[in-house]
């Protein structure tokens, strides 16, 4: 169960090598979290992440999980919940893709959509049902400001995040008053391995800043978290820019 400050004792990370997820896990372990499951494709990076978190004092286990294999999600994730209550699930997997290449390769574009949206729908529903059965817990979904309005530069990725965001909001409404808390996190450009080599966007942030916002959101039982917070005002304005003008903006 969570403590008086909303800190989970147990955490399941879907996307166990994500920089944001690991920054969040480190922050929560420093508070109270003691049991962590890192779910992802087996790899040296996943093993290294688990070893690092063990060094911080947590009991860490790895779980072989593939977002692109939804038929396996119920079995794989069900085994985690069978071990005991999970206070928080952090849905953090996703791929950025290569917009220029993906426009020319529909198969590659579909892979982005299947990872970021279809895989998340499957895993999200499996975890939501398990949290509802146990009667408590938080499902934190990493969305993106890219899903707020499609941009020419990354509309394939942005559209997948738009779908994920809408799904998570609807799921939160469906779980209202069940004891399960759903929180959507919308970061802007995050300096991480995923964005390495890309031109930095205005209001760029860090995995540690997103982790701090997630922790605060858990305490407040927030439903939506923007990182940085000023992006909420920026995106509110951009949503209402006429489309002909929006096309010309250097976004």
TrEMBL record:
Pfam families referenced in this protein's UniProt entry, alphabetically: adh_short
Record bears the keyword Transcription regulation: no
InterPro entries according to UniProt: NAD(P)-bd_dom_sf (IPR036291), Sc_DH/Rdtase_CS (IPR020904), SDR_fam (IPR002347)
Name of protein: Decaprenylphospho-beta-D-erythro-pentofuranosid-2-ulose 2-reductase
Source organism superkingdom: Bacteria
Enzyme class: oxidoreductase
Gene3D superfamilies found in the cross-reference section: NAD(P)-binding Rossmann-like Domain
GO MF terms, alphabetically ordered: oxidoreductase activity
Keyword field: Oxidoreductase
NCBIfam families in the cross-refs: PRK07904.1
EC number: 1.1.1.333
Annotated organism of origin: Streptomyces bluensis
Similarity comment: Belongs to the short-chain dehydrogenases/reductases (SDR) family.
